[in-house]
Request: fold
Amino acid sequence: MSLVNKKRKTKNGSSSAEFRLNLFLSRPIFCALKTHTAIIALFVCFFPLLALATDTQQVSFYVIQPGGDGSTEEAKPYLLEFFDYLREQTGTSFDGLYINSKNEAVTALQNKGVQLAIVSPEFIATYRDRFNFISVLKTIPIYSSGPYEKYFIMTNKATNLIDLADQNTKVSLYTSGDYDGAFLNNVIFGENEMIKKISWQMIQSPDVLNIIKEIDAGKTNTFVLLTGYEFSVIQQLKRSNSLPSLQLVFSSTELPSSHVVTLGSGNTSLLGTLKTALVNMPNSLKGNMILKHLRLKGFAE
Reply:
């Protein structure tokens, strides 16, 4: 998922359908898991929840989506727009970065005093205890009817999934996201025992577009794992008779989307104001436009 929402021109000779397909590689950075990009309601704890700013300080607010599209530099204008809106609504200044590298995200959380973050589900599942994440809100992806994410696996129509489940050979599963194997098996696959029987070899690719084109062109026994946003774009193309040889072989249950989380303890009053500002974003023209840039419908408790 990406904050980078630039206008793109088709190359010479490319079809409009191929251009639209390329759009899905710009995954929303508030996936959520990528993320493609869920934020749980705030619970009362034994200590205040957020070490947020005084009048002369800034709140450090990061967006962490390992495997997300774009770059830190490309995302800066969209984050500045987002932070400016929050400042207008809360009276507090915010700064932060978009990080799509798992290692860089861990380093930032360890060393840079991050106080708030929008974090992908996989990252939360892996590092919740290490960084004491406290979930505050859920993101609502732009394609979704609620604060959840779904995942889909597609392959060529000639591929026999049942045969592969009975074989003890590695099967390529391409993805644009950076997913931990345990998250894939325990969360995305859930209780689907047949899909778990396959010996998946997960391959993160910066160019899932070409993988999809190869699969549609006849490459069998190769699969692609898509976020809900990516899948929604593929479905639009299939309705226009593009990618006719792709078939859906797996869809997950509704899983948590990206979370807004706090790290540390402190100013609960400011946290309440911030939550109100985020939840009310769809109710203003400016807030709604910013959400569209982030490929979100909104935030929910």
In short: Confidence is low (pLDDT under 50) at residues 1-51. The chain has eleven helices and 14 strands. The longest strand covers residues 134-141. Residues 16-145+256-300 form a domain with the D-Maltodextrin-Binding Protein; domain 2 fold (CATH 3.40.190.10).
